[in-house]
Amino acid sequence: MPPPVDQEAWRKKAEQGDPDAQYEWGKLQTWGKRQAKDNAEATRWFLTAQVQFRKAADQGDAHAQLQLGRMLEYGHGGEADPAEAAKWYRRAANQDEAQAQYRLGHLYEYGNGIAKDFQQAFRWYDLAASLGDVNAKLKLDMRKQWRRGLALAQQGERGAQYQVGRMYEYGLGVAKDNEEAANWYRRAAEQSNEAAQYKLAHIYKEGIGVPRDEAEAAKYYRLAAEQCRSKAEQGDAEAQFELGRMYEQGYGVEADPELALQWLRLAAKNGASSAQYRLGHIYQEGLGVAKNSAWAAKWYRMSARTALVSTNPKMYPM
Q1: Per-residue pLDDT at 130
Q2: What distance in Å separates the CA atoms of residue 109 and residue 168, rounded to the nearest whole number?
């Protein structure tokens, strides 16, 4: 956990004319951390910092160019201008400012202010990573995972096919591509991968990367539900939770609130934190049951404890 922000120290440095402190103090005013938000005061400090950053940036200071780029990208002190931000990031990046290289790569990856270019994005990520930027290293690791996953997926490994579908859907290590995501989910679904069947059902229902098709959506929801039921009946707590949610939503099965509660309670009893949390919400809101704040609190506490145990089993020995 990062150390707490010393707001008084930032304020004093800001008043003494430090532009980095002025920028940080402005952000604290915007976020309202441990104080009331004050957007007018935040803008005043942003503009004060920006004047100094721009003067130094014009003189070639890489750090000032990075900071000015950030302010322009996020609209701190005015309207966001990612195209202008890219210009300043590039100047800093060409001086081996690693964080600027990462930000420039990010703009290229998502086409924010400049034309989307995945190859350029990873060129800058690679340079930033070579200078030690942690975020850029994570981007490169994700790219490696995509390549390894793709190799396995092309060999017919259904779990890898599902994961590659997810990577294309969310743009993890590869350019986001809903059609490719649907293609890999379909391959995995055809090999009875339950998660892929559920994903593909949702894709057909919403028309994401494929034409909307309610019949295909119903088909894949049904297949996913059949597999989920089989696992649930064998005692799989996560499958019991998923089946409960299917009965809640009517996906692949006819909606049945009583059966939904039955499966959710069984999943919760068997240690599914997600089911325990869901039961807490159900009792809190009175969804198919009488509102009961005591039961809601009980399930929320149990969910939190289960999550802690799974993260650190030594903390709560079973």
Answers
A1: 98
A2: 13
